[in-house]
Amino acid sequence: MSLLEVKDLQVRVEEREILHGLSLTVNPGQVHAIMGPNGSGKSTLSHVIAGKPGYEVTGGQILFKGEDLLEMAPNERAAKGVFLAFQYPVEIPGVTTWNFLHAALNAQRKARGEDEISSPAFLKKVREVAKSLNIPQDMLKRGVNVGFSGGEKKRNEILQMALFEPAVCILDEMDSGLDIDALRIAADGVNALRSPERAMVVITHYQRLLNYIVPDVVHVMSKGRVVKSGGKELALELEESGYAQFEDAA
Amino acid sequence: MNVVAKTETGRALGDAFAVVRDRLPGKGKIADQRQQAFEAYERSGLPHRRIEDWKYTDLRALMREVLPLAPAPDAAALDRATAAIKLRAIDGVRRLVLVDGAFAADLSDLGSLEKGLSVRPLREVLDAGDAALSAQAFASDISNPMIALNGAMATDGVVIDIADGTVLTRPLHIVHVASGTAPVAMFTRSLLRLGRDTGVTLVESYLAGEGAKAYQTHDGLIVAIGDNARLDHVRLVEDSVDAFNISSATVTLGAHAHFNTFGLTSGGHVSRYQLTVTCAGEGSKVETNGVNLINGKQHADTTLFLDHAVPHCASREIFRAVVDDRAHSVFQGRIIVRPDAQKTDAKMMTRALLLSDDAEADNKPELEIFADDVTCGHGATTGALDESLLFYMRARGLPEKEAQALLIQAFVGEAIETIVSDALRDVAIATAQRWLEARA
C-alpha cells in the first residue's frame, strides 16, 4: 500500500481555488521532490496535508496508509506519523524547546496508546539526536526557536523529525534562508533519516537542494496541478529551461 | 446625605451596624472611629460605575448588598476550615488562620516564635486598648467607601510586628477561610510592621470550606516597611466561584526599603484588590506583579495606586490576565510622581489574553508625573492566542488544549517568575496549573 495518496485534491482559500485537482502517490522509502514557481500551490499542499486551518477542501482526498487524513485534527495526523518541517518555524517565547519537545512526544505516544517517556530517558534521547545534528545543549533550554538563526531553526525542525520518527516527512522550502554550509548540515540530517519505511516530500524552488537530497521522483507543479513527473534528471532539466514552459501547459 | 443614592440594602446595613456595633472589639476612641468610618461609607454606599475608580467594577450591580456579619465559627466550622487548609497547605510556613473573620488560635502555628517576631489577634489588641496599634489600624483613608466599611466592621485580624534587625527565614502565611454555607460577610483587618533592617515573606490565601458559596470577604492589610527592610509578599485568591472578595492593602516604604509583591486571582465570583503603595523613603524599590486566571462569569479587578513621593525610587509592574468564557478582568494602574520625586524610575506593563469572544479585559494605566527628571513608561496590550503558534504546536502532536496550556503558562510565566522564593513560585505555578487542568 502506498504511504501517502493525494487524489484529485481541490482546495480553496477565501473563495479562490489554489489547487485544482492535484494527485500524488508516495510509497515507503521514496523521496519525492515537488518543484514549481511561486504561487503554484506547493506550500498550500504541505499545509493541507498537515491540517492547517483556513483551507477549504472542496474535492478529492488525502489518504495516509489508507486512512482519510482530512478527517483528522493536526495533532492526530502528527501522532499517526505525518511531519511537516515548516518553511518559517515559529518562535514560542517562554516555552523551552526541551519542554515543548517532551510534551509533544508524550502527546503523540499517548495518542498511539504507548507509555509516556520519562524525563531522563527523553533527555538521553534528545541529547543524542542534538549531538548528531550539531545542535548545542543550551539551545534546548531556550524558548522554542527564540533568537535562533535561520540555520538553527531549520536544524531544530530536523531535530524534531529525528525525535518523532514520522512515516512521512514534508519539507517545505527547507533551503530558504540557508547559506551553503547550513544547507549541507540540514541536508545531511535529512539524509540520515532516509529509510526503506519512511518517505519524504521535498518542496523547493531550486534544484540546488536536490544536489544534497537526491530524489527518486520529481514533480513539477504549476497553477495548482502536477504538470509533469519524472526522475531526478527532470530537476536538472528545469534548472536549464525554467518553469515558463509549464505555465502554458497548466 | 444623598438620599437618592441610598438603596434599600444600604438602610438594612445601617440597621445591621447598629446591631453589631457592641460586638465589635475596641471601645472609646476606636468605637468613635468606627462610627465615623461607617458614616463615611453610608454617605456613598456601595460604589458604582459613575465613580471613575469603580467604572469597571460596579458593586451596586455586581454585589448589590452587604451580607450580614458571619457568626463566630463553631467546632464544625473549624473542622471544615481545617480540611480546606489541608488541601492548600504550604510547607515550611508559619500559618496564621482567620476563619469566618475570627482569628483561630488552634489552627495557627503560634509556638516558638522567632526572637523579634510578635503575633497577636487584632481583637485582643483592640480590647487591650493599645493606643498606638489601634491608631495604626484605623489610620486608613476612609474616602474609599470599601476601606471605610472594612474599618467600621472589622471583627478581627492579625497584628504582626517584626522588631528592628530581625530577618525571618520562615514565611508567615495568613489564611482566610470561609467555612460555612450561609451567605454571610467577613470583615478582617491585619497589620504588619517591619522594623529597620528586617526581612520577611508574607503569604496570604483566601480559601473556601466545602459547601461555602456566596459569602463575602472584606479584608484590609496595612503594612509599614521600615528603612532598609524587605518584604516579599504573595497573595493567592482561591475563593469559591460564587464568593465576593473586596480587599485593600496599604503599604508604606521607608528609605532603601524593598517591597516585592505578587498576586494570583483564580477564584471568586467578584474580586477587587486595591493596592496602595507609597514610596516615602528615598531609594526604595517596589515590584508589584500579578496574574488573573478567570473564566465562567468571574470578575477580577486589581487596582493599583503607586505614589512616588520622594526621589530615587524605582517601581516595576508586570500584570497578566487570562480571560475565558464571559469573564471580565480589570487592571487599573495609577502611578503618581510627586514634584520632589526626581530620578524616579517607574515602569508598568500589563497584558491580557482573551480566550473567548465574550471575554473582556480592561487595562487602564495612568501616569501622573509632576517631576521633570524621571524615567517612566507603561504599556498595555490585549489579544488572543497566536493561531500560527497553536498550529505549529498541534502539528507536533499537541492537542489544542495542551498547546493552549503551554502558551498560557508562558504568558503568565513572566509575572510568576518575579516571585523570589522557589517554593512559593512553585505554589503559584501549581495554582495556575490547576486552573489550566480544570479547563482542559
From TrEMBL, chain A:
Region forming the signal peptide: none
Q: Which UniProt keywords apply?
A: ATP-binding, Nucleotide-binding
Q: Which SUPFAM superfamilies match?
A: P-loop containing nucleoside triphosphate hydrolases
| Keyword Nucleotide-binding tagged | yes
PROSITE patterns referenced in this protein's UniProt entry, alphabetically: ABC_TRANSPORTER_1, ABC_TRANSPORTER_2
| Organism whose genome encodes this protein | Bradyrhizobium uaiense
ABC transporter domain: residues covered: 4-248
Q: What is this protein called?
A: Fe-S cluster assembly ATPase SufC
Enumerate the Pfam families for this protein. ABC_tran
State one molecular function term (GO).
ATP hydrolysis activity
Q: Which family does it belong to?
A: Belongs to the ABC transporter superfamily. Ycf16 family.
Write out the function statement from the record. Answer: Involved in beta-(1-->2)glucan export. Transmembrane domains (TMD) form a pore in the inner membrane and the ATP-binding domain (NBD) is responsible for energy generation.
Q: Which SMART domains match?
A: AAA
